[in-house]
Amino acid sequence: MGQVLVTGGAGFIGSHLADALVRLGNRVTILDNFESGSKSNLVDLVDDVEIIEGDIRDEALVESLCRGKDCVFHLAAIVGVPISFDSPNHTFDINLGGTVKVLEGARKAGARFILSSSAAVYGCSHPKSQPHNNLPSSPYGLQKLLGERYAQWYSQFYGTDVAVLRYYNVYGPRQNPKSPYASVLSSFLYRGLTGKDLVIYGDGLQTRDIVYVGDIVRANLAASQLSTMPANPIDIGSGRSLSVLEIAQTTIRVLGANVNIIHGEARPGEVRFSECDPCPAQESLDFRAETRFADGLSATANWMKDMIETGVWE
Q1: Which class for 25: exposed (0-12), middle (13-18), buried (19 or more C-beta within 10 A)?
Q2: pLDDT > 90 in the chain, percent
Q3: Collapsing DSSP states into helix, strand and coil, what is residue 97?
Q4: What are the backbone angles phi and psi of residue 289, rounded to the nearest 5°?
Q5: Are 271 and 124 in contact (CB under 8 A)?
Q6: Within a 13 Å sphere around the CA of 221, how many CA atoms are in the beta-carbon half?
Q7: Whether the model pTM is above 0.90
Q8: What pLDDT digit, counting tens, does each position of 174-230 carry?
Q9: What is the fold, at CATH topology level, of the domain defined by 3-168+213-236?
Q10: Distance CA 278, CA 282 (A)
């Protein structure tokens, strides 16, 4: 690759990707507005990357940063179903409008474009049995689906090298559990470590395919190195589905926490069943998730313990 741009590079996934790119000898530029990303995620990278604080909706800035780049990894977004219901206009402006501006910057620069999308595009349909039935049940899922369509349009009509990766439920170190839109696993770990009961919204029988952040990074690197870019979006998950209740019970067991599981009202737009078919990723990217849930959970718990002990989330 050589010279790369990572939008959202101070975020949870983006900072891990930036770490890996630097280790591979790339010259990395990070663009982040630090609305949800954190400078603490970049502490070990400050001497090795160029960090630009700015907005992906700033067309002139994006175009200037894309210039001369070999690959653009686009991760910047407002992530989450609940916040897209609370702020549909704001999330649309960033998740779709910002994506198109970054796409245009990559096109003008002749750079490859790797788009981070989401299994939220499937809505309440089950992708393993209905692989072409994209019916988003939230503004977030719709915004991600439209971003995918724009990326494919740029590939078809402009010849931009594009790969679209649809992530399932990503977990790992650097995921902020204090956000009102934190992932279920991050929230469970934080509550368990601080002696609070774990809250499940709904009956807990809804399932999630959870995939470790290190595997997501590997998928991005694999996509960026393809000789021929895939025509269709590629699902990136573990291929194993767990109920939210199972995730909560496993979290309590791994932590040895003396806490209970309580239930709250189900959230609107929440997907009932989620499970990735890993075969297309293996065929297109020679990729398969490698991290066992127990190992990833332990690594994330150890990191979170350190954050709690240092008072980061007080």
Answers
A1: exposed
A2: 80
A3: helix
A4: -60, 135
A5: yes
A6: 21
A7: yes
A8: 998 887 667 789 999 999 999 999 999 999 999 999 999 999 999 999 999 998 898
A9: Rossmann fold (3.40.50)
A10: 6
Q: Which residue out of 140, 168, 190, 212 is catalytically annotated?
A: 140
Tens digit of each residue's pLDDT (9 = 90 or more) over 93-147: 999 999 999 999 999 999 999 999 999 998 876 665 445 567 788 899 999 999 9
Per-domain residue ranges of the chain: 3-168+213-236, 171-209+239-276+291-309
Helix H segments across 118-172? Answer: 139-158
Active site annotation includes 140 = yes
Supply the DSSP string of 34-93, one letter for each residue.
Answer: -SS--GGGGGGGTTTEEEEE--TT-HHHHHHHHTT-SEEEE--S---HHHHHH-HHHHHI
Contact 45, 23 (CB under 8 A): no
Cα–Cα distance between 261 and 200 in angstroms, integer?
7
Joined tokens for residue 94? 């960033």
Q: Which CATH number fits domain 171-209+239-276+291-309: 3.90.25.10, 3.40.5.60, 3.10.105.10, 3.30.300.30?
A: 3.90.25.10
CA distance 47 to 41: 13
Structure tokens that stand for 257 in this block: 């926490």
